[in-house]
Amino acid sequence: MPGYLKWIYITFILLTVPCFLWAQPDYFALPDSIAIISRQYPKEDTARVSALNNALEYFVIKTYQNKQDTPEDVENHILFLINEICHLSDKIGYPYGKAKANYSGGYYYFLNGDFVKSLQYFITTQNLLLKLSAAPQNQQLLFQTYILKSDCYMTYSMFSESFEDIQKAQKLSEEFDNHPWNFVLNCVMAEFYRKMNYTEKTLTIYKEILNDSTLPAISKYAAYSSIVDIYNELQEPDSAQIYMDSIFCYRNPGISPTPMLLSQGDIYAQKKNFEAAMKYYREASETPNNLLINQAEILVRMANANYHLKKYPDALDALSKSMEIAETYFLYEIQKQGLEIKINIMEALGKYKDALQVEKVYRAVTDSLEKKQNKEHVRQLMLQKEMKTIEEHAKINLLIEQQKHQQQQIKLIIGLSFFALLSIIVFLFFCWKNASLQTKKAELKNKEMELDLRNRELTSNILSQIQKNELLNDIISHLKKLESEDSENIIESVHKLIYELKQAIAGNLRQDFDYYFVQTHPNFYNSLLTDYPLLTQHELHLCAFLKLNLTTKDIAAISNISPDSVKTARKRLRKSLRMNNPNDNFANFFAKY
């Protein structure tokens, strides 16, 4: 992984973590900003998980920044924090806290170059976050996970997997239109295309990054450096020089100037200006805190420049120092470059035997380099297989979890369906029971009404029979009296007896009519009297006759009066009912009662 890209990642992460106090007497002592939070939230809650996650991030960053002074048990301490956070997050149901702890674990191994372990943590983080909502903090962590996963795959040339994660990160970036996300994504895409040897696409992305006026100086420095390196690889020194001039403006004092000085020296070397190239190579070699590996590269370039300047003793001296470092650290590529230069120097000096001896060493180094490359290739293939296995196992575990979740949902649906069905059955049973009870009540009420009706009919018949018997007895007694009377009084007594018989017949008829009418229309009289309380008994009877739509003749027969009397009674009833319109019909009027 290029150094500038790591700096971009570190800068991005540092934007999201709290400001920490770095100077502590004890390596595992927390800064006050985190320690206070940990003491304020001793209980099992999300605030404590957040405080532990801040502590974990602190140790990860601190470990990367202080590699030389890192204790041996720092990894155990970090793993302990991860396990503690995961356990507490599971206990309180806070999956985001668990995802963040796994991300920090993956980032720790990522910074230390163990990309296999890093990938395991990142996959766990990804699977946890995909189950959560689309909240901004969830999506931001998922974006960072996709970016670092992509770089893990890219390191071992697993470009299809890397590009898949880049596309996922790009989709999130488009959805949220987040400026820092877009910058990081562009850097990763540029690195991806560079490793795929898509030079034009790589340059296009870096130039787009430079057009962003809001980017910090460190980001522009990284972009300019990458463009210069690409043009140097393409052996286009003029184009490289155009961008090289801007690097000096954006270089941060905290960044080593060695890469910048080497790039400038390479530009002059390609222009055949080896004096100027030597100047920058010499400055690079004098830079403090250079790693021995970097020093070996610088010495080889200095030897090459001295060779072209025909300063052969200086070139051989630089090569001697470079070869010593390269042999110690098995840097076969640097040895190969140095031996090529040494062969050229021996030939230039006319020392062909020495050149031949050096060439034998060169072939041995070349063979060793090929073996190393083959071993590295085999190792890379094995790591690719291991990473694919991890990915497949993660997918299988995710499918198993999804199946378990689906089974739980199916069980829940079946349980709810069974409960609903049982509830419906119980409801229908009670409805049926209630309906049966209502039916029985209705039947019982009908029987009671039928029994009451029969009792009334029986009582009416008995009373009617009694009245008839009394009438007949009265007639018999009147006839007995007529036997003793003279002829003049007989006619008058007969007329009187006929009148009494008619009155008795009419009274019985009205009584029977009232009984059966009330059975059919039980509320008629009460409703009518509510609206017209001044109606007489005769008027009520007439209203009942008119409701049944009886003719004048029928009413006269029942009432034992003449039809003309009925007509007169109808006119009087109209006034009592306030039926002022002559066209009003009695049948329509009484329909509402």
Structure description:
The chain is mainly α and 593 residues long. The protein is built from 24 helices and no strands. It has helices at residues 3-14, 32-40, 46-65, 74-92, 95-111, 115-130, 136-155, 159-176, 179-195, 199-210, 217-233, 237-250, 258-270, 274-285, 292-308, 312-328, 332-348, 352-484, 487-520, 524-531, 537-547, 552-559, 563-576, 586-590. The longest helix has 133 residues, at 352-484. It starts with a helix and ends with a helix. 27% of the residues are buried. Residues 3-25 have low confidence and may be disordered.
Brief characterization of the structure:
By secondary structure, this protein is mainly alpha-helical. It contains 24 helices and no strands.
The H-and-E topology, N to C, reads as: HHHHHHHHHHHHHHHHHHHHHHHH
Question: Would you tell me the structural class of the helices and strands?
Answer: mainly alpha
- Low-pLDDT windows of residues: 3-25
Task: Note the main sheet.
Answer: none
Proportion of helical residues:
over 70%
Total beta strand runs: 0
Shape, principal axes of CA atoms: rod-shaped
| Helix count from the secondary structure assignment | 24
How much of the polypeptide forms β-strand, as a percent range?
under 5%
From the alpha-carbon coordinates, what is the Rg to the nearest angstrom? 56 Å
- Straight-line distance between termini: 100 Å
